């Protein structure tokens, strides 16, 4: 494998990010409207918590992270179980790596970069919802290896999105995939 170039996510990356996201997660997962919103939520103190990974001109991975206080704690979150002030918790929205580049530490490196940026923004922890139906439950395994702790499981987490146009690669437009709400406490 060649050297991977990691850098902050910018609008110049949007088209490639949308393409990779929809290929990996299913059509309708990401579009021009939500990527702009997700990107803006990654900023605090003029620091960007979103990152991309390139092999030459090919986007091979990305991480979308919302800055603390830039995201809505919804019914799928269990803040009463977090051992951190909600005002200091970022949200790891999405980590995606091209299937041909998995197993090389790209996802972990993207997470490390986002954690470093989130810490500069004032976060002391980060929460995510991991897709338990990922092949071999790899999403949960990867996040656990990176220090993530299970908070709670949430059946049907993405069902509403599917009913509104997200075509889950496993369930179609009637998604019943389960999310593992997990948290990483920063050192």
UniProtKB/TrEMBL annotation:
One Pfam family here: Acetyltransf_1
Domain annotation N-acetyltransferase: ranges: 4-187
Swiss-Prot/TrEMBL keywords: Transferase
Keyword Nucleotide-binding included in the entry's annotation: no
Database matches in PROSITE patterns: GNAT
Official protein name in the record: GNAT family N-acetyltransferase
SUPFAM superfamilies for this protein: Acyl-CoA N-acyltransferases (Nat)
GO molecular function terms attached to this record: acyltransferase activity, transferring groups other than amino-acyl groups
The UniProt record lists the keyword Transferase: yes
Superkingdom of source: Bacteria
């Amino acid at each position: 494998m060649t050297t991977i170039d990691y850098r902050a996510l910018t609008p110049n990356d949007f088209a490639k990010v949308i393409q990779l996201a929809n290929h990996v997660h299913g059509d309708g997962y990401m579009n021009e409207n939500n990527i702009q919103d997700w990107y803006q939520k990654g900023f605090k103190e003029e620091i960007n918590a979103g990152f991309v990974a390139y092999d030459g001109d090919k986007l091979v991975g990305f991480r979308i992270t919302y800055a603390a206080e830039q995201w809505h704690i919804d019914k799928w979150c269990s803040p009463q179980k977090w051992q951190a002030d909600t005002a200091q918790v970022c949200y790891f929205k999405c980590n995606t790596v091209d299937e041909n580049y998995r197993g090389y530490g790209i996802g972990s490196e993207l997470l490390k970069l986002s954690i470093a940026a989130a810490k500069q923004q004032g976060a002391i922890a980060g929460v995510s919802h991991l897709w338990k139906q990922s092949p071999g439950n790899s999403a949960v395994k990867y996040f656990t290896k990176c220090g993530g702790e299970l908070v709670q499981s949430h059946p049907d987490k993405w069902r509403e999105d599917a009913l509104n146009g997200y075509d889950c690669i496993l369930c179609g437009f009637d998604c019943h995939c389960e999310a593992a709400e997990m948290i990483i406490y920063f050192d």
